[in-house]
Specification:
elongated; 76% helix; mainly alpha; 0% strand
């Protein structure tokens, strides 16, 4: 080990796990530790997640338990943060071992001590595991703490991380304009911040990809269709580059959801295939709900009922890997049942999603859930109930500034009014969303816009 380290430093740096194992066999664990850590970080950066998990556990085995010195405690904190990050990427936000790792890391800091990068990133890691729970209010509390800590500016990366954390919480709460502004600010800071390699470079890169993901969603919710589609195309080009393995599952999942929002089922299959290959290669099982659910939805939308079991499975898996996103998968299931002409099941699932939304605080999709309930009521000939649901969807979407959801709800209610002979009322309703149909962000070929334009033509 000493020969490799001292006489062949380039070879040692390229294969740190070999140096680590020689020191381990020599019985010198304190010297083995930094080499195991270096090997784990290299593997993590290269996307070899299973290997990096094994190596970080080897590094932790080199430490005494409990840590007997300040340096040993800092080593343990740093390794626990790395372990938690690897486990989240491998097994999803809901992995209990990841949560335990970040909890232990935060517990090792001395009360009243100065803010360190380790303390900040331990809290950031704990924040990420909260997506595996069902309490958006706790997620908001921790994101606010990260924002407060970032004002200390111990690191130039602190504001980048804190802005993404706060912006993501804004999105789930249904504050899309605020979410987009924070994600844009985060990405702008990422462009100007020193990009030199350091211990936390992987965290910064991962956060920037996540901020980009939330930007995809927010653009669509705000009715900026052309910008959202352009960003989607750019994201799919990015994930096709083999060098961009970091957070590929995260970005692909957001891309799949945006494709579903745009109602382009044909585009689901190649993206789902890419995600499936990524899951197989990187062993990142936490993204399985996305690959399964959206593939199943696209199959049903294309006329293949056999996609339903995949959607059902995605709901069950989301509760294990990403509980906060349960509304996403329940709405997917409700929409699938509607396409299969099973209105009672569609309505029941939408009701379950709204109850989860109320319990968890995730209100970003409430307007669409009410619209789905309205469409289900129409299929069951419950017209008065349908009108009330459409009205509720419009009210929520306007309050949140969710223009894309407002357009959908207005089109559903506009059709309803036309059938009842209330042409003027329907025209007045559609005039409220005419900017989405005629402005520079409009894409007339998209189903939502095409159907709204067709309704306008029938009304006039």
């Amino acid at each position: 080990a000493e020969t490799l380290r001292d006489r062949f430093p380039e070879r040692a740096s390229a294969t740190p796990e070999i140096v680590a194992r020689h020191f381990e066999e020599a019985g010198d664990l304190p010297l083995a530790l930094p080499w195991f850590e270096k090997a784990a970080r290299q593997s993590y950066a290269n996307g070899a997640l299973s290997e990096s998990e094994h190596l970080v556990l080897k590094a932790l085995e080199c430490l005494s338990d409990p840590p007997l010195s300040v340096d040993a405690r800092n080593d343990r904190i740093r390794l626990l943060i790395l372990k938690g990050s690897i486990l989240v990427d491998l097994y999803g936000y809901g992995n209990p071992l990841a949560t335990a790792a970040f909890r232990e890391a935060t517990s090792l800091f001395e009360t009243g001590s100065l803010l360190t990068e380790e303390a900040f990133y331990a809290l950031h890691g704990f924040f990420e595991t909260l997506y595996g729970g069902a309490d958006l209010r706790e997620l908001r509390r921790v994101s606010d703490s990260l924002l407060e800590m970032s004002r200390d500016r111990k690191s130039a990366d602190f504001p980048i991380v804190a802005l993404w954390a706060s912006g993501s919480a804004d999105f789930w709460e249904g504050r899309f304009e605020t979410s987009l502004a924070k994600c844009d600010q985060c990405l702008a800071l990422g462009e100007t911040t020193d990009r030199s390699e350091n211990l936390w470079s992987e965290h910064r890169r991962g956060v920037l990809v996540q901020a980009w993901s939330y930007r995809l969603w927010s653009l669509w919710f705000l009715g900026r269709y052309r910008s959202a589609k352009d960003e989607l195309d750019r994201a799919l080009d990015w994930v096709s580059d083999p060098q961009n393995s970091k957070k590929i599952g995260h970005l692909l999942t957001f891309a799949l959801i945006l494709i579903r929002f745009l109602r382009l089922p044909d585009r689901i299959f190649p993206a789902a295939d890419t995600l499936c290959e990524s899951i197989r290669t990187l062993k990142t099982e936490g993204w399985t709900p996305s690959e399964q659910g959206f593939r199943g939805w696209a199959m049903v939308m294309k006329g293949t009922p056999g996609g339903l079991p995949l959607v059902l499975r995605s709901v069950a898996l989301s509760r294990r890997y990403h509980r906060l996103a349960e509304v996403t998968y329940l709405s997917l299931l409700s929409e699938t049942y509607l396409a299969l002409k099973a209105p009672r099941k569609a309505e029941g699932v939408a009701d379950s999603a709204l109850r989860f939304s109320e319990r968890s605080g995730t209100h970003f999709f409430d307007a669409e859930l009410w619209r789905l309930k309205g469409e289900a009521a129409l299929l069951e000939k419950k017209r008065e109930e349908a009108r009330e649901c459409f009205g509720r969807a419009i009210e929520i979407s306007r309050r949140q500034g969710a223009r894309a959801l407002e357009l959908r709800a207005a089109t559903s209610l506009g059709r309803f009014l036309r059938e009842d002979g209330k042409r003027k009322e329907a025209l007045a309703l559609m005039s409220e969303v005419s900017d989405l149909l005629e402005g520079p962000e409009s894409i007339p070929a998209l189903p939502d816009i095409r159907e709204a334009l067709e309704l306008e033509r029938h009304l006039s």
